[in-house]
Amino acid sequence: MTGITAANANQMYRIGIDVGGTNTDAALLDSDLRCVHKVKVHTTADVNEGIVEAVRLLLQESGVNGSDIRYAMLGTTHCTNAIVERKHLGRVGLIRIGAPATTAVPPLAGWDESLRAAIGPHSYIATGGYEYDGRRIASLDEEEIAELCRRMSGEVDAVAVCGVFAPVNREQEQRVGEIVRDVLGADMPVTYSSEIGSIGLLERENASVLNAALLQVIAGVVRGFEKALNGFGIDAQLYICQNDGTLMKSEYALRYPILTIACGPTNSIRGAAHLSGLSDALVVDIGGTTTDIGVLVQGFPRQSSAAVDIGGIRTNFRMPDILSIGLGGGTIVRLDDAGGVTVGPDSVGYELTTRARIFGGDTLTTTDVAVKLGRAAWPGTNADAVDGAVCGKVDAVIQQSLEDAIDRMKTSAEPVDVILVGGGSLLVPETLAGASRIIRPDHYDAANAIGAALGLVSGESERIYSLDDWSYDDVIRDAKESAVNEATAAGANSETVEIVSVEDIPIAYLPGNALLVKVKAAGKL
Amino acid sequence: MNKTTRLTTLDEQSIEYIAIGAAVLGTGGGGDPHVGKLMAMEAIREHGPVRIAQLEELDDEGLIVPVSMIGAPTVMLEKIPSAEQLTKPLDLMERELGRKVDAVMPIEVGGGNSLVPVLAAAQRGIPLVDADAMGRAFPESQMVTFHLEGIPCSPVAMADERGNSALMHTIDGVWEERMARALTVEMGGSASICDYPVSGAQAKQSAIGGTLTLAYEIGRTLFEAKQQKLNPVHELLTKLNGYALFHGKAVDIRRRMDGGFTRGEAVFEGTGENKGETMRLFFQNEFLLATVGDQPLAITPDLITLLDQDTGMPVTTENLKYGARVTVAGLRCDEKWRTPKGIETAGPRYFGYDFDYVPIETLASKGGAAR
Predict the structure, then answer these.
(1) InterPro entries per the record (chain A) (predicted)?
(2) Residue A161, exposed/middle/buried by CB under 10 A (0-12, 13-18, 19+)?
């Protein structure tokens, strides 16, 4: 990669960083969103080290001044890892505002012991809650809430509040938050379920508890990111990537860390769209250990329709619909006595350059095979160390597993365009069954960081309307207006805000023709 | 189902399987069994495993009471019932009838109501009967086999989470539906209900036996097919003697509200062997009619259920999205639904579709669904 020789003085740049499990990628984009430079470093135990190193290399190699950088976007796997590994999670006090309803299913039902232990013992059901139309089921008992807070005192790092039908009426949740801060201190972080998720009490409650448990993690991320940038004289507006391909300001991220879960695959998909110029295609992102396949629909990742488990916990988040298979550039290839081959699912990961055959190591990997087959040239390596006889077989296995995975993600039998990104994409042959074209865009190995830098700023609205009181057109107009306002409040330029999706779901068995309307709007910075 | 070993107790694993099977038998409606599953698991954790009774084991003189939730499934996802709410109608029923309830049963095996009575059985320490009164899911409370055979629905007992309860005597199931539905709205869109209290003898005569075991077997088949990497749709249809009516992709979905129900239709473009064909699927909460051109492939009260082509997992009317690749599967309904009264109660004309009911196997033999 050759950097540009001199930075244009009038250019205002943006940096996108994507922290993955193995590598931290960073990309520098100019005002026209062209990738000016990109770097890749290892993600180390202290994740912030990788971020600092990536920014340092990016500035040094590109020659761009830190002061010319206007925006910095970070997509990170910190929060996902914290949940999956049950590490660094904060202790959470949960107050469900539901009694006398909801007692048949206690809080944290279905959580495993390790995660319950991380959260701590303070989960309660207090009196209160609303009906679907906003009528009160029961009033708050403020003394009861205060007593629950006193019980938590000193034993929680944050409080999550989740009320029945809070998405329809958030008044009780807000009041509980005030009491929490009265009793536990004005700086006690509070997560309100009405700000986290949609209808579906248990799933929203789970997501709210996880969000509260991640507040310390995200605070560390944002502080580390600010510090890293400040260290290089970068005074940029910071954004954190969400899993729907849009951005949130870092102040906002400090309150909603759960929204960062699974942003990595989303960033790759968005980056692939930008680099290829396509808006509808399959995106195959091959990293060191896994291949993630997602679907690009009108420039955004297709969302999964099923309830989404995060670290074994059911939530009602909308997540990108991703199929992961155990195939990457470091995937280990094994030969059996009968002459058969197995590929993966384990990988040498970032040790590729010491353990793989072409680097003088003793482990046969998929990259060895790709280099031997001439798909990739890797200067300074020795392809003679690879036995050519097995390469055909290995290649057939890889091709078959990719073709199967692509077929599973397609929505019709028609061939689709396939965009290949990620460092491991050199494994892929020239043609694949089911693919009309295989597109390998420039900067394919930094699609995730580029995707991070591109994000739009979004806002959402979700509400139940009664079609007896409103006309359908008025309902949709109101919902759209509300989503647009949310997007501009989050930092989008109001002139660029567009409606991304409108979904309306009639609610069965309710009078007044109740309609649940969800709208999402997004705009440029 | 006769060759299958019937369930004798419910543990956490069997509850998992039943929840999946109930969603398949829910034929697109009936609500998500997830909340019922969590309530059942919690009850078993607290009170121990629940004993399952077969219809044949029931004392003819015994009192069997169905326990269910009535209202909007969407409301139940949010306003989870209280633990007391599910036994309160049983208390009312006992007071009114002057005797103890000997066993409970689900009123419908399809959807969220399949596992609702587990909590009541666990709390009371009484058995849960392996039977229901639909063999599927239907939208209205008179659409039960008890109604078909002239068993009175009354007394009817209802409760909300606040502690309100009501005891009603209605002249028939249609009036129960009207009055219970009105009360449900006042109770905030969902309520617990016990109706059709029956004797053991009546249950043997009029309930559909073995349906919890059926739901269990469906869940287990799908789970094991996934583990063994077999085609789950194929495995399931073989197991159930079901019909793969159509393989297709959803290209248009239209829902509208009509009298508190989600009515509408979905259009599927054929894939694989159905390439070039178009199928229409009509629904009112549940899928009720499937047609290609003017030809019906399956008609209510036979079961029409949508299975994800890859996973075999059921797709509901609410979750059906553009682009979904599904197999439209048809299953025979219980013979009780094929009587003139059954067809009058839950046949195509009741739902406003201008078709005469023709059994699915007859349609299949004409070539409509023989795949």
Answers:
(1) ATPase_NBD, Hydant_A_N, Hydantoinase_A, Oxoprolinase-like
(2) buried
In the CATH hierarchy, which top-level class contains the domain A1-84+214-261? alpha beta
Q: How far apart are the first and last CA of chain B?
A: 22
**Nearest partner of A435 among A281, A319, A293, judged by Cα:** A281
Matching CATH number, B234-365, of 3.30.365.10, 2.40.390.10, 3.40.50.300, 3.10.180.10? 2.40.390.10
3-state SS class at A507: coil
Asked if A132 and B78 come within 8 Å (Cβ–Cβ), the reply is yes
Residues in Cβ contact with B197 at an 8 Å cutoff, skipping those fewer than 6 apart: B63, B64, B65, B93, B97, B101, B155
Kind of pairing between the strands at B208-209 and B198-199 = unpaired
**With 90 as the cut, is the pLDDT of residue B330 above it?**
yes
According to DSSP, the residues that pair with A18 across neighbouring strands are A25, A75
Residue in chain A closest to B140 (alpha carbons) equals A509
Asked if A420 contacts A438 with a C-beta cutoff of 8 angstroms, the reply is yes
pLDDT for residue A23 is more than 50: yes
How far apart (Å, rounded) are the C-alpha atoms in residues B75 and B160? 13
Q: What are phi and psi of A109, to 5 degrees?
A: -60, 135
Interchain pair A505, B161: CB under 8 A: no
Q: Where are the alpha helices (DSSP H) in A356-496?
A: 366-372, 388-409, 447-454, 472-489
**Which residues in chain B (285-304) have CB-CB distances under 8 A to chain A?**
285
Fold of B9-211: CV3147-like fold (3.40.1610)
CATH of A90-212, one of 3.40.50, 3.30.70, 2.40.128, 1.20.950: 3.40.50
A203 pLDDT higher than 70: yes
Segment A279-287 shows an average pLDDT of 91
Q: What is the mean pLDDT of chain A?
A: 87
Report the pLDDT value the prediction gives residue A380, as an integer from 0 to 100: 81
Domain positions in chain B: 9-211, 234-365
Question: CA-to-CA distance for B254 and B262, rounded, in angstroms?
Answer: 10
The Cβ-side half-sphere exposure at A380, using a 13 Å CA radius, reads 3
Contact A322, A292 (CB under 8 A): yes
For the record, the structure tokens of A87 come out as 């590490």
Assess contact for A516 and A133: CB atoms under 8 A.
Answer: no
Chain Cα centroid distance, residue B263:
18
Write the DSSP symbol of residue A136.
B
Contact B79 A509 (CB under 8 A): no
A202, A307, A509 member nearest B260 (Cβ): A509
What would the mean pLDDT of A280-306 be, rounded to a whole number?
84
Checking A37-44 for CB contacts under 8 A at 24+ apart, the result is A37/A1, A37/A3, A37/A4, A37/A61, A37/A62, A37/A64, A38/A1, A38/A443, A38/A445, A38/A446, A38/A449, A38/A450, A40/A423, A40/A445, A40/A446, A42/A350, A43/A19
pLDDT band at A4 (very low <50, low <70, confident <90, very high): very low
Phi, psi of A418 (to 5 degrees): -120, 125
Q: Which residue of chain B is at minimal alpha-carbon distance from A411?
A: B323
Structure confidence by residue, pLDDT tens digits, B50-100? 999 999 999 999 999 999 999 887 788 899 999 899 999 999 999 999 999
Residues 214-233 of B with CB under 8 A from A: none
**Rounded CA separation B74/A208 (Å):** 20
- The Cα of A284 is separated from the nearest Cα of chain B by a number of Å equal to 19
Residue with tokens 């020659």: A63
Instruction: Decide if B177 contacts B193 (C-beta within 8 A).
Output: no
Is A199 within 8 Å of B260 when comparing Cβ atoms?
no
Q: Which amino acid is at A170?
A: R
Fold of A277-445: Nucleotidyltransferase; domain 5 (3.30.420)
Torsion of Cα atoms, A231 then A232 then A236 then A237, to 10°:
-40
